[in-house]
Specification:
The chain is built from three helices and no strands. The chain has helices at 4-18, 27-46, 52-83. Helix 2 packs antiparallel against helix 3.
Length: 115
């Protein structure tokens, strides 16, 4: 797999994070980097080289940008997968003494029940 080293590095990062030696990667930060990489790649694609030597260099730079975009997208997928769903807000957390949503509803009367 192309991202084996990245996976190893991400595992090491989470170990450092658990030990309190690293800051958490924010999803928005990765998204901002992706936006910049896509913009840079678009700029490179629009460039028209004057000489054949520059065309090879430009192709190499575009290839590098594509690889960086691929890595950033992989990282974004990994941190969103590991982070899981957003935590509940305080008012959404059920309390033991609060009635369940069904308990507050009126029970059906005897004449509306069907056997």
């Amino acid at each position: 797999m192309a991202h084996e080293k990245l996976a190893e590095r991400l595992g090491a990062y989470y170990a450092r994070l658990g030990a309190g030696k690293a800051h958490k990667i924010k999803v928005r930060d990765v998204e901002k980097v992706l936006e910049k990489l896509h913009a840079r790649r678009a700029e490179l694609a629009e460039e028209a080289p004057e000489k054949p030597e520059k065309a090879a260099r430009l192709a190499s730079r575009i290839e590098t940008a594509d690889e960086l975009i691929s890595r950033a997208e992989w990282l974004l997928a990994e941190i969103t997968r590991i982070a899981g769903p957003a935590p509940l807000l305080a008012e959404e957390i059920p309390t033991p003494d609060a009635p369940a949503p069904d308990e507050g509803a009126a029970a059906p009367s005897e004449d509306t029940k069907q056997d």
